[in-house]
Amino acid sequence: MAERLLEVKGLKVRFTTEDGVVRAVDDVSFELDRGKVLGVVGESGSGKSVTAMTILGLTRDKNTAFEGEVLYRGENLLALPEARLREVRGNEIAMIFQDPMTSLNPVYTVGDQIVEAITTHEQASKQEAKRRAVELLRQVGIPNPQERVDDYPHQFSGGMRQRAMIAMALSCNPDVLIADEPTTALDVTIQAQILELLDRLRADFDSAVILITHDLGVVAEVADEIAVMYAGRIVERASKRQLFYDPQHPYTWGLLGSIPRLDRPKPKKLASIEGMPPSLINLPQGCRFRPRCPHSFEKCFEEPDLTNRVEERGHLDRCWLSVEEKRMRRTQTIAGEARVA
Known about the structure:
Elements: E1 4-17, E2 20-33, E3 37-41, H1 48-55, E4 64-72, E5 75-76, H2 82-88, E6 93-96, H3 100-103, H4 110-121, H5 126-139, H6 145-148, H7 158-169, E7 176-180, H8 188-205, E8 208-213, H9 216-219, E9 225-230, E10 233-239, H10 240-245, H11 250-257, E11 307-308, E12 316-317, H12 323-334
Parallel strand pairs: 3-8, 3-9, 6-7, 7-8
Antiparallel strand pairs: 1-2, 1-4, 4-5, 9-10, 10-12, 11-12
Helix pairs in contact: 4-5, 4-7, 5-7, 7-8, 11-12
């Protein structure tokens, strides 16, 4: 049995604003075992990053309310005092943020920032920490790391800055690595290199990884399990094989239809999901995807549970359609032939 590192149970995150209460994350649950990769996929505003930042305690504020549990090795991170949480953050659970240019401090060298991450959590001299920083930069593929360790972030390319962020996140050998859109704004060649690097480092360090992205194609190669989020909730969760070969939720079909395929004739236009994501202050009645779903019917005005509806265990979804109806309709949806009535 693999070691269970992280368990999120019924997580809810709400932000109080002048316009109303934003239900950013609503009843999210998942588990993460050592050595495994969980892909979290969804549009902007679906709650992916808020979930990740809440795990690290980065959303704590007087206007924020939490429910549920985030258990790391049995310890509820939501209930930890800030001092203990700082010990966990960066040391046992680390995060690679979406934009390395704004995440790295422009007035400190890349090496100094990695050294600070090491000396904050470990009893190491600056000389020893710098030697480790050079080795980490070498491991993530930075050429001439002995020289580049003294460069500033603006002297690195976008791909190299992302590699430096990965090196910093790995500096204390964390058990859990959260990668929030690590390939955004990178060209496809560098994107492939970063994903290959993350997969190799996961194996080398025996870490568990949460990979957050809006693109199902990004997680197709590296994820063991995929959770699809929409409007603050997980609408489908399954193993990679189950999700790609037998997707059960119409929103997942829309995401799959937006990916260009090399094994099919080139379409005149890629399929798209009609409409816009709902306001997290004024959510639609029943199924949250209902206003955009081409297959909605009267039952969809009732709220569906995330449950196992197919023969295979562990494949969960929130959709009232029968399994037979889903398998009949999804080909049209993925091909872009279904439209909201």
